[in-house]
Amino acid sequence: MADLSKNDEAVAAANEEALVAAIDAPVERGEPILQVRGLKKHFPLTQGILFKKQVGAVKAVDGVSFDLYQGETLGIVGESGCGKSTVAKLLMNLERATAGEVFYKGQDITKLSGRALKAVRRNIQMVFQDPYTSLNPRMTVGDIIGEPFDIHPEVAPKGDRRRKVQELLDVVGLNPEYINRYPHQFSGGQRQRIGIARGLALNPEIIICDEPVSALDVSVQAQVINLMEKLQDEFNLSYLFIAHDLSIVRHISDRVGVMYLGKMAEIGTDSEIYEHPTHPYTQALLSAVPVPDPEARAHRERIILTGDVPSPANPPSGCSFRTRCWKAQEKCAQEVPLLAVPSVFKGQDTPAAHFSACHFAEEKQVVPAH
Amino acid sequence: MSIIDKTAAVPAPRDGSHTGPLLEVRDLHVEFHTRDGVAKAVNGVNYSVNAGETLAVLGESGSGKSVTAQAIMGILDMPPGRIPKGEILFRGQDMLKMSDEERRKVRGRKIAMIFQDALSSLNPVLSVGYQLGEMFRVHQGLSKKDAKLKAVELMDKVKIPAAKARVSDYPHQFSGGMRQRIMIAMALALEPDLIIADEPTTALDVTVQAQVMDLLAELQQEYNMGLILITHDLGVVADVADKIAVMYAGRIVEQAPVHELYKRPAHPYTRGLLDSIPRLDQKGQELYAIKGLPPNLLRVPTGCAFNPRCPKAEDICRTEIPALAPVTEQDGTDLPGRKSACHFWKETIHG
Description:
The complex is a heterodimer.
Chain A: H1 2-24, E1 32-47, E2 53-69, E3 73-77, H2 84-91, E4 99-104, E5 107-108, H3 114-123, E6 124-127, H4 141-151, H5 161-171, H6 188-200, E7 206-210, H7 218-235, E8 238-242, H8 246-252, E9 255-260, E10 263-269, H9 270-275, H10 280-288, H11 294-298, H12 330-334, E11 355-356
Parallel strand pairs in A: 3-8, 3-9, 6-7, 7-8
Antiparallel strand pairs in A: 1-2, 1-4, 4-5, 9-10, 10-11
Helix pairs in contact in A: 1-3, 4-5, 4-6, 5-6, 6-7
Chain B: H1 3-7, E1 23-34, E2 37-49, E3 54-58, H2 65-73, E4 81-90, E5 93-94, H3 100-106, E6 111-114, H4 118-121, H5 128-140, H6 144-157, H7 163-166, H8 176-188, E7 194-198, H9 206-223, E8 226-231, H10 234-240, E9 243-248, E10 251-257, H11 258-263, H12 268-276, H13 315-319, E11 325-328, E12 334-340, H14 345-350
Helix pairs in contact in B: 5-6, 6-8, 8-9
């Protein structure tokens, strides 16, 4: 009996070993490194203090699927409240998914635990939006960037850490002598560089960036964006780039996904989305972006949506966009459109034939071509 | 305060007896006295707005664009703020020399302001109807009931659906775009001559941003108001402004009609800003980035404040402050409304 349980333990340990090995194995460029399938996160709404009764759920993420390929940047855009930040948290395993799978190199990370989960976490890192609150004001820059090494000591042996941190500071364009300074001694752009250095510390393969530049000044935004592109080439990183600024997303992304109310409305390469959008929401979103060119203002068609985004606690039936859509018909209220190549474009060799969740998908150019 | 002060004439009425610009800011200086020294937030700003015109003030954080607006409104914290020099002429009258009482008559009634963050600018414990009605109760002495009716009217004006039913709701019950509409309604309440909008759409999503900007433009036209739009977003400016003033470290570095500025910037900072924003309609290569950081206002660089970050800087830029001088064509013909504060504006615009 005792022998058997020992045997079991040995098998479990061997399994875990195999898992960690699989997680650490490299992925070829252009292969999917992260596959998300039907991801859902519902936050329960409860009533009562002592006997909490669930009265509903906020469907923050409601069935999102996409692939992230090795070495690419996938941009996720959408208005506030569409669930893009919740997706980031789910991919980091900071929130437990209600349903769905996230495959990292073939392993479903929503079901992992222990050493295997730790190995995954080392390979997926995050850069946060607000550089003012995401750095501990009582820690020096050296401690902040070096903290990941305390959790994953195998990456850098103890004596080596200071040198590693200085190297990282140099990589992100900060003076390595700043290692003993505190966050308040830096400007917003410099702080975001510290956040990026921390994300890079463990040599991750994927970096999830949640609005990394929206808190920065225009002239500093460009510096940080350029740095991120440089680092991607240097370290062969895959980015999931979440932002609400469509121009920046276009600049940095290889592929773009548009989210609306917890669902993916449209996904494709950057030119498919920006030059040949087929989903009405994408078209409205693109046409609303102010273009910094007064000449373009005259001959530009603008679609101005009426109303606000519906509450995710009580989304409309059928297509969630139908309440603000100018094309909405009976069918939209009854059937949920699937994210697929629309039937009108099926089999055609046009850039409009990409995934779009609309019953009445049709190409419409809203961004003036150059 | 003497009786004469109290009854002194309020700036000229709307009949147009005053000619010239609606608002003129002349050589305005604002400084803040802090423990670490004197921060010079505004160092000699000049601009003017006419009725029905939109002036956009563009700048990064710390450039002094909001401080200028606060000085115009008279809501600057003094101390630590101080206005050592300058004039703010509203219909020809210097507002800095007015008594508090006179100032109060102008504020809200003649010049109104829209703030960036509607949630923190509205009082969370009062209903929006009460807050909107306050304008009428205080300035026009209306009864509570009449003020509420007026509030409903205003909410209809800014296209808030079901205004009658929502007038007693509290700010948190509205979405971000609706709250910004309430801010606009509040600013419009007394049909002012001038509205100052400080980053009115920065906190909003793009689709809502477009709705709000459209509303603002529509109402401006209807009432023939002057509008000062303070923003850091070059895209928003291109869509609505007539003329632009670009600010850097408390000075205006370039002034131009909107079309001209985007086509041919006459200051390296403006050029840098335009080159550093990614474009929706273009997939560029590497972005041009202005190197370095905006200056610390306690230690503004000598000479041109932009010189440490400027690719064209030469010795003269480090010693001499360039004046905001008119810009001309290569052959010397005037470019109306264009000014640049750069020693090398010729090379920048024509080079």
